[in-house]
Amino acid sequence: MKTSLFDDGPVVQSDRLIYTASAFAKANTIHLQEIGELKALKPHASYRENLDSYLFFLALKGSGKVHFENKDYFLTEGDCAFLDCRRPYFHQTDAEDLWQLKWVHFYGPNMNGIYDKYLQRGGLPCFRSQRPQEYQKILNKLHEIAGSDLYIRDMKIYEKLTALLCLLMEESWNSSARSPQIHARSKCEIQSIKDYIDQHYIEKISLDDLARIFYINKFHLTRVFKMNYGISINSYIQQLRITQAKRLLRFSDMPVQAVAQACGIDDANYFSRMFRKIENVSPGEFRRMWRKE
């Protein structure tokens, strides 16, 4: 269910599409609440709080200010805002340089965790985008789908909102923007270290070993590895070992202890505990589940 409004009032001119997702979409997907574009006709401010919603908007023209979490952000053309609307915020256009915005409000049962992850990765409530045209393209497509009569409209909307979140996550981890000196110095060497880990993860690898082999400070290594790949070195090695374990459990008849050793873990009990912690089942249960005929 959607409603399209065109407000030609004294303060803003807006093309707003209010959308009501299906009960299925609200319970199971990230779903649209409203989407639109506004052009300020006079200086004005918009205040919100306690909304079960997340707001993304892109400044198309002009400039303005967002106040969020006791901090002011000044936005100009090409800047973006990504806000948790459960928290108080307001945004206002500049009095001289009236802005034009594209925005979308959306929500979902897993959005709180996604936003927390966005912040953990270095994402900001307001930021300068390197790819504003991509955001605009997604928003245009979202508006088109929401206004259509597609039978699978809610799933198509989910697809585009996920694309929006992926783009936000990518830009939140733009290490060159946040620390260009570290990024420029470390990009080649950190790729070499990752390649080494990919080839040797079944061996015992420590930070001290990597620092010695690659002549790099281990604290610097820890920082730039996570900056570039979004995961710690130890977690990355663990991920590689568990993935290899799943392959062997599914496609070989090796005993669990042999699987553990083939993944670089000598203690079968520790391997089983780690496997259960990550996959929520024991290695034996995983094998039985995935090898049923």
Strand order of the largest sheet: 1-2-3-10-5-8-11
Main sheet makeup: 7 strands, antiparallel
Order of helices and strands: EEHEEEEEEEEHEHHHHHHHHHH
From the spread of the alpha carbons, the general shape counts as elongated
Strand content: 15-25%
- In angstroms, what is the radius of gyration? 24 Å
Helix content: 40-55%
Q: What is the count of helical runs?
A: 12
Structural class: alpha+beta
Low-confidence stretches: 1-8, 175-182
Average residue pLDDT: 89
SS elements, strand count: 11
- Cα(first) to Cα(last) distance is 43 Å
How is this structure best described in words?
The protein has helices at 23-28, 111-120, 132-146, 153-172, 175-178, 180-200, 207-214, 218-229, 233-251, 256-262, 268-279, 283-290, and strands at residues 2-8, 12-19, 31-40, 45-48, 54-61, 63-68, 71-76, 79-84, 89-93, 100-107, 126-128. The chain is built from 12 helices and 11 strands. It is of the alpha+beta class and 293 residues long. The chain has a 7-stranded antiparallel sheet, covered by helices on one side. Strands 4-9-6-7 form a 4-stranded antiparallel sheet, with no helix packed on it. The two termini are 43 Å apart. It is elongated, with a radius of gyration of 24 Å. Helix content is 48%, strand content 24%.
